[in-house]
Amino acid sequence: MTITIYHNPDCGTSRNTLAMVRASGEEPVVIEYLKTPPSRERLKELIAAIGIPVRGLLREKGTPYAELDLGNAKWSDDELLDFMMAQPILINRPIVETPKGTRLCRPSEAVLDLLDRPVREFVKDDGEKVVYPPGQV
């Protein structure tokens, strides 16, 4: 199975999601999207595959979202894409693509049903250790 993750190594959620993919026995294609941003067309494809509006992929925290007034409804989808292309930090992450689907994995455990093999243990974004299925060690 081919798995691709659009990853930011400085993001805890992204690191956790990558660790969960690897814990399933898969070695994904890792695209550090701040170094190698997706093309505009690829970004549109990912948004469509996830099934969210363009605005749904905007990241607010730690970005120029507020100073650019991106919460304002005046911006069209094309304009929002322009902002994401100009400043990839505005693209929320991690995005994981597998044969089972494409998803913005926030929280990181959203990746679990995209994987072929189960992940028995993982640590949630808030630091909580989870054993899956519950009650087993």
Topology record:
Elements: E1 4-7, H1 12-23, E2 29-32, H2 40-50, H3 77-86, E3 95-98, E4 101-104, E5 121-123, E6 129-131
Parallel strand pairs: 1-2
Antiparallel strand pairs: 1-3, 3-4, 5-6
Which class do the helix and strand fractions yield?
Answer: alpha+beta
Identify the overall geometry.
Answer: globular
CATH topology-level name of the domain at 1-33 and 93-137:
Glutaredoxin
Give the name of the CATH architecture of the domain at 1-33 and 93-137.
3-Layer(aba) Sandwich
Q: Largest sheet, if any?
A: 4 strands, mixed
User: Could you state the CATH homologous superfamily of the domain at 1-33 and 93-137?
Assistant: Glutaredoxin
Low-confidence stretches: none
Give the SSE string: EHEHHEEEE
CATH class of the domain at 1-33 and 93-137: Alpha Beta
Distance between the termini: 27 Å
Number of helices: 3
Strand order of the largest sheet: 2-1-3-4
Q: What's the total number of strands?
A: 6
Gyration radius, in Å: 16 Å
- Mean of pLDDT: 91
Q: How much of the residues is beta strand, in percent?
A: 15-25%
Fraction of residues in H or I helices = 10-25%
